[in-house]
Fold this protein.
Amino acid sequence: MTNKELIISFLKKHNYNFCDDCLSSLTGISPRQSINQLCNKELYVFSKHANIKCHNCNKIKITRSLANTFENTKIKNCLKNERKFDFLWNEITSTLKPSQQIPN
């Protein structure tokens, strides 16, 4: 199982916000910075929240959770094939109004 799959699996089982330190210790992924890099790279899967209490350590920190769109079946299926996701992402963002555009 890849680190991405480990984090997704953990966050699906525990639908709360967790800081990178706790995600690292709870999933066994090290170093902790790899959590940060992976989650920042995969923004369509993971949401980043500033100044939110971590469910595990109860500290106010930057936390992670699954993005709301992750439960969307189309997005979930696209995790297996990045090209399909790129196509779908372009399809979705092309329908957004200028005020809703997502920066690159």
Summary: The CA atoms of residues 12 and 57 lie 19 Å apart. DSSP finds five helices and three strands in the chain. The chain has two domains: 1-67, 72-104.
